[in-house]
Amino acid sequence: MNTAVRALYTVPFVGWALRDAVGGRIGGVYLLLTYLVLALVGLVYHYGYAALITIALTATAACLIGLVILTAGELPGRARRH
């Protein structure tokens, strides 16, 4: 097992939820998403508007990268169909 994954498993709340999510328990996925949302809300509460802007800009970049990947005509390593 990868060292980074082992390190994540040792974090008390996140490790338990991550282990459940990887194991296939549906409740683990929802718990992990709840922790993510609570962490983002906590960041906005603590740092204010700057954290909100940073989260929005990160989401914008992720969406743009997703659109580029989805609209790529020919991806490397893919066989061309005629």
TrEMBL record:
Q: Which residues cross the membrane?
A: 28-45, 51-72
Q: Does the keyword field hold Membrane? A: yes
- Domain of life from the UniProt record: Bacteria
The name of this protein is: Major facilitator superfamily (MFS) profile domain-containing protein
UniProt entry keywords in alphabetical sequence = Membrane, Transmembrane, Transmembrane helix
